[in-house]
Specification:
Layout (H helix, E strand, L loop, with lengths): L3 E4 L8 E3 L3 H10 L7 E5 L4 E10 L4 E5 L3 E2 L8 E6 L3 H13 L4 E6 L10 H14 L7 E2 L3 E2 H7 L5 E11 L11 E5 L7 H9 L3 E4 L7 H14 L1
Parallel strand pairs: 1-3, 7-8, 7-12, 8-9, 8-10, 11-12, 11-13
Antiparallel strand pairs: 2-5, 3-4, 4-5, 4-6
């Protein structure tokens, strides 16, 4: 039987925890229909979690008796930042959801020269991200930041990370050799691809160009595959 996980940011673990988050109470009681005696996992979103047993659950209350908290063992061993060009709403929501599921630590929406859709709903994306982290068993709640333009994103990258931009004609990503546990970042362009000047600017900023071979992928497909590759390589 699946043990449901709830991320409660900043939670202070105790032997008997009275959950205050109304959204989690509603989800446990009305959506998941959990009952007394069932097991759950509570996570603080910062890498610590605890197994517990529901002592009380109703539309107004959720009380969980917890075992001693411990460090999550499900987090990837490397931090990956996904810089993803904003695409239309449903597709960008898919990018956020799946990037979290495959292990992204941070997501940065970027506005490029060929970006058409520039508005995103941060509150909704944060909900999608939290649900994806819980569903996939994450020990941390990944970060999503306010959109920035491409130039700002190039300044945002860490010089201590392995930084890549996905573009046709680049080195096949399957041939890249990483340094163990070194942070990584990956840039994914919009539906229309990168502007030539952006590719030049990325090169000057020290990004390596990688590709998926001869196949042309949609932006959301490329984002998901590239994030998985960066996390697991």
């Amino acid at each position: 039987m699946k043990v449901h996980r709830f991320i409660i940011e900043g939670v202070e673990f105790s032997a008997e925890l009275h959950v205050a988050d109304r959204g989690i109470i509603h989800q446990a009681f009305a959506v998941l229909k959990l009952r007394e005696g069932e097991s759950v996992i509570l996570c603080d979103g910062r890498g610590m979690e605890a197994l517990g047993v529901i002592a009380e659950v109703s539309k107004d209350a959720l009380v969980v008796r917890l075992e001693a908290p411990h460090a999550s063992e499900s987090e990837p061993g490397v931090a990956v930042t996904l810089y993803a060009a904003v695409v239309k709403r449903d597709n960008f929501e898919l990018i956020v959801q799946k990037a979290v599921e495959v292990g992204a630590t941070r997501i940065v929406p970027i506005i490029t020269r060929r970006t058409i859709k520039t508005g995103i709903q941060m509150a909704r994306l944060e909900i999608i991200m939290k649900e994806a982290a819980e569903q996939s068993g994450r020990g941390i709640l990944p970060e999503i930041v306010q959109p920035m333009n491409f130039g700002e994103a190039l300044l945002d990258i860490s010089p201590e990370a392995d930084n890549f931009i996905c573009n046709a004609g680049g080195e096949h990503f399957g041939n890249v050799v990483f340094e163990t546990a070194k942070p990584r970042s990956i840039f994914i362009g919009p539906e229309g691809g990168w502007d030539d000047q952006e590719v030049v600017e990325a090169s000057f900023a020290g990004l390596r160009t990688v590709s998926f071979g001869c196949l042309v992928m949609r932006a959301e497909t490329a984002a998901i595959i590239a994030t998985h590759w960066a996390v697991n390589s």
